[in-house]
Amino acid sequence: MDALREARVKTFVDAFRFIADNPHLLLVKTAEHLELSGAALGIALLLALPVGLWLGHLHRGLFLAASISNVGRALPSLVLIAFGLTIFGIGFWNNTVALVVLAIPPVLTNAYFAVDAVDRDVVDAARGMGMTELQVLRRVELPLALPLVFAGIRIAAIFVIATATIAAIAGGGGLGAIIVNRASYGDAGVLAASLCVSALAFLAALILSLVRRAASRRPVPVP
Amino acid sequence: MTLAGGPVIPNFGSGSSCEVTNGWFCTDWVRQHWSDTLQPALVQHIELTVIAVAAGLAIAFALALAGFRYRLLDPPIGFVSDFLYTIPSLALFQILLPVTGISVLTVEIALVSYTLLILYRNMIEGLRAVPAEIVDVARGSGFTRIQTFTRVELPLALPTILAGLRIATVSTVSIATVASFVVAKGLGAPIFTALEQDVFKTEIFAAGGMVVALALVADGLLVLLQRALTPWTRSGRPA
Protein backbone atom coordinates (compact mmCIF):
# COMPACT_ATOMS: atom_id res chain seq x y z
CA MET A 1 0.00 0.00 0.00
CA ASP A 2 2.87 2.30 0.84
CA ALA A 3 4.58 1.61 -2.48
CA LEU A 4 1.36 2.51 -4.26
CA ARG A 5 1.04 5.73 -2.32
CA GLU A 6 4.63 6.57 -3.10
CA ALA A 7 4.03 6.00 -6.81
CA ARG A 8 1.01 8.31 -6.68
CA VAL A 9 2.92 11.04 -4.91
CA LYS A 10 5.76 10.61 -7.39
CA THR A 11 3.40 11.15 -10.35
CA PHE A 12 2.29 14.47 -8.88
CA VAL A 13 5.85 15.49 -7.99
CA ASP A 14 6.87 14.67 -11.56
CA ALA A 15 4.01 16.76 -12.87
CA PHE A 16 5.17 19.80 -10.90
CA ARG A 17 8.71 19.14 -12.06
CA PHE A 18 7.38 19.08 -15.64
CA ILE A 19 5.79 22.48 -15.05
CA ALA A 20 9.06 23.85 -13.67
CA ASP A 21 11.09 22.37 -16.54
CA ASN A 22 8.79 23.39 -19.41
CA PRO A 23 7.46 26.86 -18.60
CA HIS A 24 7.76 27.99 -22.22
CA LEU A 25 5.78 25.07 -23.66
CA LEU A 26 3.03 25.49 -21.08
CA LEU A 27 2.84 29.25 -21.60
CA VAL A 28 2.55 28.85 -25.37
CA LYS A 29 -0.16 26.21 -24.95
CA THR A 30 -1.97 28.34 -22.37
CA ALA A 31 -1.90 31.29 -24.78
CA GLU A 32 -3.33 29.08 -27.54
CA HIS A 33 -5.99 27.86 -25.15
CA LEU A 34 -6.96 31.41 -24.19
CA GLU A 35 -6.99 32.48 -27.83
CA LEU A 36 -9.39 29.72 -28.89
CA SER A 37 -11.59 30.15 -25.80
CA GLY A 38 -11.57 33.94 -26.02
CA ALA A 39 -12.47 34.00 -29.71
CA ALA A 40 -15.34 31.57 -29.20
CA LEU A 41 -16.66 33.36 -26.12
CA GLY A 42 -16.39 36.72 -27.90
CA ILE A 43 -18.35 35.49 -30.92
CA ALA A 44 -20.95 33.90 -28.66
CA LEU A 45 -21.37 37.15 -26.71
CA LEU A 46 -21.79 39.18 -29.90
CA LEU A 47 -24.46 36.78 -31.15
CA ALA A 48 -26.30 35.89 -27.95
CA LEU A 49 -26.23 39.03 -25.79
CA PRO A 50 -28.18 41.37 -28.10
CA VAL A 51 -30.80 38.70 -28.82
CA GLY A 52 -31.18 37.68 -25.17
CA LEU A 53 -31.32 41.25 -23.87
CA TRP A 54 -33.78 42.44 -26.51
CA LEU A 55 -36.10 39.45 -26.13
CA GLY A 56 -36.00 39.98 -22.38
CA HIS A 57 -36.83 43.64 -22.90
CA LEU A 58 -39.84 42.69 -25.04
CA HIS A 59 -40.80 39.92 -22.53
CA ARG A 60 -41.19 37.70 -25.56
CA GLY A 61 -39.61 34.43 -26.60
CA LEU A 62 -39.82 32.63 -23.25
CA PHE A 63 -40.26 29.38 -25.15
CA LEU A 64 -37.26 30.14 -27.36
CA ALA A 65 -35.02 31.03 -24.42
CA ALA A 66 -36.05 27.97 -22.42
CA SER A 67 -35.67 25.62 -25.41
CA ILE A 68 -32.26 26.98 -26.34
CA SER A 69 -31.15 26.40 -22.78
CA ASN A 70 -32.53 22.84 -22.71
CA VAL A 71 -31.24 21.84 -26.13
CA GLY A 72 -27.87 23.45 -25.43
CA ARG A 73 -27.48 21.41 -22.30
CA ALA A 74 -28.37 18.19 -24.11
CA LEU A 75 -25.60 18.72 -26.69
CA PRO A 76 -22.48 17.04 -25.31
CA SER A 77 -19.29 18.91 -26.09
CA LEU A 78 -17.49 15.83 -27.38
CA VAL A 79 -20.38 15.03 -29.71
CA LEU A 80 -20.43 18.60 -31.03
CA ILE A 81 -16.72 18.50 -31.72
CA ALA A 82 -16.96 15.11 -33.38
CA PHE A 83 -19.90 16.29 -35.52
CA GLY A 84 -17.97 19.44 -36.41
CA LEU A 85 -15.02 17.33 -37.43
CA THR A 86 -17.13 15.34 -39.89
CA ILE A 87 -18.60 18.50 -41.38
CA PHE A 88 -15.72 20.99 -41.43
CA GLY A 89 -12.71 18.68 -41.14
CA ILE A 90 -9.80 19.50 -38.88
CA GLY A 91 -9.24 23.20 -38.40
CA PHE A 92 -10.14 26.48 -36.79
CA TRP A 93 -13.81 26.48 -37.80
CA ASN A 94 -14.64 23.04 -36.53
CA ASN A 95 -13.67 23.85 -32.97
CA THR A 96 -14.73 27.49 -32.97
CA VAL A 97 -18.23 26.65 -34.19
CA ALA A 98 -18.57 23.90 -31.58
CA LEU A 99 -17.42 26.22 -28.80
CA VAL A 100 -19.68 29.07 -29.92
CA VAL A 101 -22.68 26.75 -30.07
CA LEU A 102 -21.94 25.61 -26.51
CA ALA A 103 -21.43 29.13 -25.17
CA ILE A 104 -24.59 30.65 -26.64
CA PRO A 105 -27.26 28.93 -24.45
CA PRO A 106 -26.07 30.08 -21.00
CA VAL A 107 -25.38 33.62 -22.23
CA LEU A 108 -28.67 33.98 -24.10
CA THR A 109 -30.93 32.43 -21.45
CA ASN A 110 -29.37 34.31 -18.57
CA ALA A 111 -29.55 37.61 -20.44
CA TYR A 112 -33.18 36.91 -21.28
CA PHE A 113 -34.27 35.96 -17.78
CA ALA A 114 -32.20 38.75 -16.21
CA VAL A 115 -33.88 41.52 -18.22
CA ASP A 116 -37.26 39.83 -18.11
CA ALA A 117 -37.14 39.82 -14.30
CA VAL A 118 -36.42 43.56 -13.91
CA ASP A 119 -39.14 45.25 -11.86
CA ARG A 120 -41.77 46.48 -14.33
CA ASP A 121 -42.60 49.52 -12.20
CA VAL A 122 -39.03 50.74 -12.58
CA VAL A 123 -39.22 50.24 -16.34
CA ASP A 124 -42.56 52.08 -16.52
CA ALA A 125 -41.10 54.94 -14.52
CA ALA A 126 -38.21 55.16 -16.96
CA ARG A 127 -40.63 55.22 -19.90
CA GLY A 128 -42.68 57.88 -18.13
CA MET A 129 -39.56 60.02 -17.93
CA GLY A 130 -39.47 59.98 -21.72
CA MET A 131 -36.76 57.40 -22.31
CA THR A 132 -36.74 55.60 -25.63
CA GLU A 133 -36.93 51.81 -25.64
CA LEU A 134 -33.19 51.53 -26.24
CA GLN A 135 -32.46 53.95 -23.40
CA VAL A 136 -34.71 51.94 -21.09
CA LEU A 137 -32.78 48.81 -21.94
CA ARG A 138 -29.35 50.40 -21.77
CA ARG A 139 -29.72 52.64 -18.73
CA VAL A 140 -32.29 50.87 -16.58
CA GLU A 141 -32.74 47.20 -17.40
CA LEU A 142 -29.13 46.35 -18.27
CA PRO A 143 -27.56 47.72 -15.07
CA LEU A 144 -30.16 45.91 -12.96
CA ALA A 145 -29.74 42.70 -14.95
CA LEU A 146 -25.95 42.82 -15.00
CA PRO A 147 -25.19 40.36 -12.14
CA LEU A 148 -27.30 37.62 -13.74
CA VAL A 149 -25.92 38.40 -17.19
CA PHE A 150 -22.40 37.95 -15.83
CA ALA A 151 -23.44 34.71 -14.15
CA GLY A 152 -24.35 33.42 -17.61
CA ILE A 153 -21.07 34.63 -19.11
CA ARG A 154 -19.21 32.90 -16.27
CA ILE A 155 -20.91 29.56 -16.97
CA ALA A 156 -20.21 29.98 -20.68
CA ALA A 157 -16.54 30.71 -19.97
CA ILE A 158 -16.25 27.54 -17.83
CA PHE A 159 -17.90 25.49 -20.62
CA VAL A 160 -15.69 26.99 -23.30
CA ILE A 161 -12.40 26.46 -21.44
CA ALA A 162 -13.39 22.86 -20.63
CA THR A 163 -14.47 22.14 -24.18
CA ALA A 164 -11.43 23.83 -25.71
CA THR A 165 -9.46 21.15 -23.85
CA ILE A 166 -11.48 18.42 -25.55
CA ALA A 167 -11.12 20.26 -28.86
CA ALA A 168 -7.48 19.18 -28.92
CA ILE A 169 -8.79 15.82 -30.14
CA ALA A 170 -9.81 17.68 -33.30
CA GLY A 171 -6.52 19.52 -33.64
CA GLY A 172 -7.55 22.49 -31.54
CA GLY A 173 -4.16 23.02 -29.90
CA GLY A 174 -4.02 24.56 -26.45
CA LEU A 175 -3.35 22.71 -23.20
CA GLY A 176 -5.59 19.86 -24.35
CA ALA A 177 -3.04 19.03 -27.03
CA ILE A 178 -0.69 17.92 -24.25
CA ILE A 179 -3.42 16.02 -22.41
CA VAL A 180 -4.42 13.95 -25.44
CA ASN A 181 -0.80 13.21 -26.39
CA ARG A 182 0.46 10.96 -23.60
CA ALA A 183 2.84 9.29 -26.06
CA SER A 184 4.86 12.50 -26.45
CA TYR A 185 4.54 14.17 -23.06
CA GLY A 186 4.28 11.19 -20.71
CA ASP A 187 2.22 10.85 -17.53
CA ALA A 188 3.91 13.87 -15.96
CA GLY A 189 3.18 16.12 -18.94
CA VAL A 190 -0.47 15.05 -19.15
CA LEU A 191 -0.97 15.65 -15.43
CA ALA A 192 0.90 18.97 -15.57
CA ALA A 193 -1.27 20.23 -18.43
CA SER A 194 -4.40 19.03 -16.61
CA LEU A 195 -3.40 21.00 -13.53
CA CYS A 196 -2.62 24.07 -15.65
CA VAL A 197 -5.95 24.01 -17.48
CA SER A 198 -7.78 23.54 -14.16
CA ALA A 199 -5.97 26.56 -12.74
CA LEU A 200 -6.81 28.54 -15.89
CA ALA A 201 -10.52 27.67 -15.64
CA PHE A 202 -10.57 28.46 -11.94
CA LEU A 203 -8.90 31.83 -12.48
CA ALA A 204 -11.28 32.74 -15.29
CA ALA A 205 -14.27 31.79 -13.13
CA LEU A 206 -12.85 33.72 -10.19
CA ILE A 207 -12.30 36.87 -12.25
CA LEU A 208 -15.82 36.70 -13.66
CA SER A 209 -17.20 36.16 -10.14
CA LEU A 210 -15.43 39.31 -8.99
CA VAL A 211 -16.76 41.23 -11.99
CA ARG A 212 -20.25 39.98 -11.22
CA ARG A 213 -19.91 41.07 -7.62
CA ALA A 214 -18.66 44.49 -8.71
CA ALA A 215 -21.60 44.73 -11.13
CA SER A 216 -24.14 43.98 -8.42
CA ARG A 217 -22.66 46.66 -6.16
CA ARG A 218 -22.56 49.32 -8.84
CA PRO A 219 -25.25 51.89 -8.22
CA VAL A 220 -27.78 52.34 -10.97
CA PRO A 221 -26.63 55.31 -13.07
CA VAL A 222 -28.95 58.28 -13.15
CA PRO A 223 -29.58 59.33 -16.75
CA MET B 1 -26.43 0.35 -52.33
CA THR B 2 -24.20 0.26 -55.37
CA LEU B 3 -21.11 -1.83 -55.43
CA ALA B 4 -17.82 -0.17 -54.60
CA GLY B 5 -16.00 0.80 -57.73
CA GLY B 6 -13.04 2.94 -58.59
CA PRO B 7 -10.31 4.10 -56.27
CA VAL B 8 -11.52 4.79 -52.76
CA ILE B 9 -9.18 6.28 -50.21
CA PRO B 10 -9.12 5.74 -47.30
CA ASN B 11 -10.50 2.27 -46.69
CA PHE B 12 -12.93 2.02 -43.80
CA GLY B 13 -13.14 -1.74 -43.66
CA SER B 14 -14.62 -4.42 -45.79
CA GLY B 15 -18.26 -3.35 -45.48
CA SER B 16 -20.63 -1.83 -47.98
CA SER B 17 -19.61 0.85 -50.44
CA CYS B 18 -21.01 3.40 -48.04
CA GLU B 19 -18.60 2.27 -45.33
CA VAL B 20 -15.66 2.06 -47.69
CA THR B 21 -16.16 5.63 -48.90
CA ASN B 22 -17.02 6.87 -45.39
CA GLY B 23 -20.47 8.07 -46.39
CA TRP B 24 -22.53 10.34 -44.12
CA PHE B 25 -24.60 7.59 -42.53
CA CYS B 26 -24.43 3.91 -43.37
CA THR B 27 -27.50 2.14 -42.02
CA ASP B 28 -25.84 -1.21 -42.81
CA TRP B 29 -23.05 -0.51 -40.39
CA VAL B 30 -25.43 0.55 -37.64
CA ARG B 31 -27.49 -2.62 -38.11
CA GLN B 32 -24.38 -4.81 -38.07
CA HIS B 33 -22.76 -3.18 -35.08
CA TRP B 34 -25.81 -2.40 -32.96
CA SER B 35 -25.49 -5.50 -30.80
CA ASP B 36 -21.69 -5.61 -30.50
CA THR B 37 -20.90 -1.89 -30.19
CA LEU B 38 -23.76 0.55 -29.86
CA GLN B 39 -26.14 -1.28 -27.55
CA PRO B 40 -23.51 -2.25 -24.93
CA ALA B 41 -22.18 1.31 -25.02
CA LEU B 42 -25.69 2.66 -24.46
CA VAL B 43 -26.25 0.35 -21.48
CA GLN B 44 -22.87 1.33 -19.99
CA HIS B 45 -23.68 4.99 -20.51
CA ILE B 46 -26.99 4.65 -18.69
CA GLU B 47 -25.25 2.79 -15.84
CA LEU B 48 -22.54 5.45 -15.51
CA THR B 49 -25.18 8.19 -15.46
CA VAL B 50 -27.59 6.54 -13.03
CA ILE B 51 -24.86 5.68 -10.51
CA ALA B 52 -23.35 9.17 -10.72
CA VAL B 53 -26.68 10.98 -10.34
CA ALA B 54 -27.82 8.72 -7.50
CA ALA B 55 -24.56 9.15 -5.61
CA GLY B 56 -24.54 12.87 -6.34
CA LEU B 57 -28.12 13.17 -5.09
CA ALA B 58 -27.28 11.39 -1.83
CA ILE B 59 -24.13 13.43 -1.19
CA ALA B 60 -25.74 16.72 -2.18
CA PHE B 61 -28.72 15.96 0.07
CA ALA B 62 -26.46 15.34 3.06
CA LEU B 63 -24.53 18.53 2.27
CA ALA B 64 -27.75 20.49 1.80
CA LEU B 65 -29.08 19.29 5.16
CA ALA B 66 -25.87 20.48 6.76
CA GLY B 67 -25.80 23.79 4.86
CA PHE B 68 -29.50 24.44 5.53
CA ARG B 69 -29.32 23.65 9.24
CA TYR B 70 -25.97 25.37 9.87
CA ARG B 71 -25.72 28.45 7.68
CA LEU B 72 -22.03 28.79 8.45
CA LEU B 73 -21.35 25.65 6.45
CA ASP B 74 -23.08 26.94 3.34
CA PRO B 75 -20.30 29.19 1.96
CA PRO B 76 -17.51 26.58 2.19
CA ILE B 77 -19.69 23.80 0.72
CA GLY B 78 -20.79 26.13 -2.06
CA PHE B 79 -17.22 27.18 -2.76
CA VAL B 80 -15.88 23.62 -2.96
CA SER B 81 -18.68 22.40 -5.23
CA ASP B 82 -18.23 25.48 -7.43
CA PHE B 83 -14.49 24.86 -7.57
CA LEU B 84 -15.03 21.23 -8.65
CA TYR B 85 -17.49 22.43 -11.28
CA THR B 86 -14.93 24.72 -12.91
CA ILE B 87 -12.35 21.95 -13.50
CA PRO B 88 -12.47 20.92 -17.18
CA SER B 89 -13.77 17.34 -17.38
CA LEU B 90 -10.89 15.96 -19.44
CA ALA B 91 -8.42 17.42 -16.93
CA LEU B 92 -10.30 16.08 -13.88
CA PHE B 93 -10.27 12.56 -15.32
CA GLN B 94 -6.51 12.84 -15.84
CA ILE B 95 -5.89 14.27 -12.37
CA LEU B 96 -7.84 11.40 -10.77
CA LEU B 97 -6.04 8.78 -12.88
CA PRO B 98 -2.88 8.55 -10.72
CA VAL B 99 -5.07 8.35 -7.61
CA THR B 100 -7.79 5.87 -8.53
CA GLY B 101 -6.35 4.31 -11.68
CA ILE B 102 -8.08 3.34 -14.92
CA SER B 103 -11.36 2.34 -13.34
CA VAL B 104 -15.05 3.11 -13.27
CA LEU B 105 -14.42 4.65 -9.85
CA THR B 106 -12.32 7.39 -11.49
CA VAL B 107 -15.15 8.16 -13.88
CA GLU B 108 -17.80 8.13 -11.17
CA ILE B 109 -15.86 10.41 -8.82
CA ALA B 110 -15.51 12.97 -11.59
CA LEU B 111 -19.14 12.66 -12.72
CA VAL B 112 -20.42 12.98 -9.15
CA SER B 113 -18.26 16.09 -8.60
CA TYR B 114 -19.99 17.82 -11.49
CA THR B 115 -23.50 17.07 -10.19
CA LEU B 116 -22.85 18.47 -6.69
CA LEU B 117 -22.95 22.19 -7.48
CA ILE B 118 -26.30 22.13 -9.28
CA LEU B 119 -27.97 19.67 -6.92
CA TYR B 120 -26.69 21.36 -3.76
CA ARG B 121 -27.59 24.90 -4.93
CA ASN B 122 -31.09 23.92 -5.96
CA MET B 123 -31.72 22.01 -2.74
CA ILE B 124 -30.58 24.91 -0.57
CA GLU B 125 -32.49 27.47 -2.62
CA GLY B 126 -35.61 25.33 -2.62
CA LEU B 127 -35.49 24.83 1.15
CA ARG B 128 -34.76 28.49 1.87
CA ALA B 129 -37.61 29.65 -0.34
CA VAL B 130 -40.17 27.95 1.92
CA PRO B 131 -42.05 30.82 3.64
CA ALA B 132 -41.26 31.13 7.34
CA GLU B 133 -44.99 31.53 8.17
CA ILE B 134 -45.75 28.09 6.76
CA VAL B 135 -42.99 26.55 8.86
CA ASP B 136 -44.35 28.43 11.90
CA VAL B 137 -47.85 27.13 11.28
CA ALA B 138 -46.54 23.56 11.03
CA ARG B 139 -44.55 23.94 14.24
CA GLY B 140 -47.56 25.58 15.91
CA SER B 141 -49.78 22.67 14.91
CA GLY B 142 -47.52 20.37 16.88
CA PHE B 143 -45.24 19.06 14.11
CA THR B 144 -41.82 18.03 15.34
CA ARG B 145 -38.78 19.49 13.64
CA ILE B 146 -38.33 16.32 11.57
CA GLN B 147 -42.02 16.22 10.64
CA THR B 148 -41.87 19.84 9.58
CA PHE B 149 -38.92 19.06 7.38
CA THR B 150 -40.24 15.90 5.74
CA ARG B 151 -43.89 16.96 5.41
CA VAL B 152 -43.67 20.70 4.80
CA GLU B 153 -40.27 22.01 3.83
CA LEU B 154 -39.11 19.13 1.63
CA PRO B 155 -42.33 18.85 -0.44
CA LEU B 156 -42.37 22.62 -0.99
CA ALA B 157 -38.72 22.55 -2.09
CA LEU B 158 -39.32 19.58 -4.37
CA PRO B 159 -39.99 21.49 -7.63
CA THR B 160 -36.68 23.34 -7.32
CA ILE B 161 -34.82 20.17 -6.31
CA LEU B 162 -36.26 18.29 -9.29
CA ALA B 163 -35.33 21.15 -11.64
CA GLY B 164 -31.77 20.72 -10.39
CA LEU B 165 -31.99 16.97 -10.86
CA ARG B 166 -32.96 17.50 -14.51
CA ILE B 167 -29.99 19.74 -15.18
CA ALA B 168 -27.59 17.44 -13.32
CA THR B 169 -28.80 14.35 -15.18
CA VAL B 170 -28.55 15.90 -18.62
CA SER B 171 -25.08 17.30 -17.85
CA THR B 172 -23.93 13.91 -16.58
CA VAL B 173 -25.08 12.20 -19.79
CA SER B 174 -23.04 14.79 -21.65
CA ILE B 175 -19.86 14.63 -19.54
CA ALA B 176 -19.90 10.82 -19.43
CA THR B 177 -18.98 10.82 -23.14
CA VAL B 178 -15.68 12.51 -22.29
CA ALA B 179 -15.03 9.82 -19.66
CA SER B 180 -14.50 7.30 -22.44
CA PHE B 181 -11.20 8.98 -23.18
CA VAL B 182 -9.92 7.57 -19.89
CA VAL B 183 -12.03 4.44 -19.42
CA ALA B 184 -13.46 2.95 -22.62
CA LYS B 185 -17.04 2.70 -21.43
CA GLY B 186 -20.20 4.40 -22.55
CA LEU B 187 -21.19 6.06 -25.81
CA GLY B 188 -18.02 8.13 -25.91
CA ALA B 189 -16.00 4.97 -26.61
CA PRO B 190 -17.34 4.38 -30.14
CA ILE B 191 -16.92 8.12 -30.84
CA PHE B 192 -13.24 8.03 -29.87
CA THR B 193 -12.78 4.82 -31.89
CA ALA B 194 -14.34 6.50 -34.92
CA LEU B 195 -12.18 9.61 -34.50
CA GLU B 196 -9.07 7.43 -34.46
CA GLN B 197 -10.22 5.60 -37.60
CA ASP B 198 -9.93 8.64 -39.87
CA VAL B 199 -13.19 10.12 -38.60
CA PHE B 200 -15.62 7.33 -39.48
CA LYS B 201 -18.78 9.40 -39.84
CA THR B 202 -21.44 6.75 -39.38
CA GLU B 203 -20.17 5.70 -35.97
CA ILE B 204 -19.85 9.33 -34.84
CA PHE B 205 -23.38 10.24 -35.91
CA ALA B 206 -24.88 7.02 -34.55
CA ALA B 207 -23.23 7.19 -31.12
CA GLY B 208 -23.47 10.99 -30.92
CA GLY B 209 -27.13 10.90 -31.88
CA MET B 210 -27.73 8.29 -29.20
CA VAL B 211 -26.11 10.51 -26.54
CA VAL B 212 -28.32 13.45 -27.49
CA ALA B 213 -31.39 11.19 -27.61
CA LEU B 214 -30.52 9.72 -24.22
CA ALA B 215 -30.17 13.20 -22.73
CA LEU B 216 -33.54 14.27 -24.14
CA VAL B 217 -35.30 11.07 -23.06
CA ALA B 218 -33.85 11.34 -19.55
CA ASP B 219 -34.98 14.96 -19.38
CA GLY B 220 -38.46 13.99 -20.58
CA LEU B 221 -38.76 11.21 -18.00
CA LEU B 222 -37.74 13.59 -15.24
CA VAL B 223 -40.37 16.08 -16.38
CA LEU B 224 -42.94 13.30 -16.04
CA LEU B 225 -41.56 12.46 -12.59
CA GLN B 226 -41.76 16.14 -11.69
CA ARG B 227 -45.43 16.25 -12.70
CA ALA B 228 -46.22 13.04 -10.83
CA LEU B 229 -44.48 14.12 -7.63
CA THR B 230 -45.57 17.75 -7.63
CA PRO B 231 -49.03 17.81 -9.19
CA TRP B 232 -49.68 21.23 -7.65
CA THR B 233 -47.20 22.94 -9.96
CA ARG B 234 -48.61 23.34 -13.43
CA SER B 235 -45.33 23.06 -15.28
CA GLY B 236 -41.66 23.03 -14.44
CA ARG B 237 -40.14 26.42 -14.05
CA PRO B 238 -37.73 27.24 -16.83
CA ALA B 239 -34.38 26.18 -15.51
Average pLDDT over all residues of chain B:
84
Structural category of chain B is: mainly alpha
CATH topology of chain A, what is it called? MetI-like fold
- Please state the second-level CATH architecture of chain A: Orthogonal Bundle
CATH superfamily of chain A: MetI-like
The sequence of SSEs of chain B as H and E is HHHHHHHHH
Find the CATH topology of chain B: MetI-like fold
Q: What class, by secondary structure content of chain A?
A: mainly alpha
Can you tell me the number of structural domains of chain B?
A: 1
Can you describe this structure?
The complex is a heterodimer of chains A (223) and B (239). Chain A has a single domain (17-217), classed as MetI-like (MetI-like fold), CATH 1.10.3720. In chain A, helix 7 (133-166) runs antiparallel to helix 9 (182-217). In chain A, 48% of the residues are buried. The model of chain A has no long low-confidence stretch (mean pLDDT 86). Chain A is built from 9 helices and no strands. Chain A is 85% helix and 0% strand. Chain A is an all-alpha fold and 223 residues long. With 239 residues, chain B is mostly helical. Chain B has one domain: MetI-like (MetI-like fold), CATH 1.10.3720.10. Chain B has helices at residues 17-20, 27-69, 74-86, 89-100, 104-128, 132-140, 145-179, 188-196, 201-229. Mean pLDDT of chain B is 84; it is low at 1-9. The chains are: A mainly alpha (223), B mainly alpha (239). Chain A binds chain B through residues 7-8, 11-12, 62, 65-66, 69-70, 73-79, 82-83, 85-86, 109, 113, 158, 161-163, 165-166, 169-170, 176, 179-180, 187, 190-191, 193-195, 197-198, 201-202, 204-205, and chain B through 24, 82-83, 85-92, 94-95, 97-99, 167, 170-171, 173-175, 177-178, 181, 188, 191-192, 194-195, 199, 201, 204-205, 208, 211-212, 215-216, 219, 238-239.
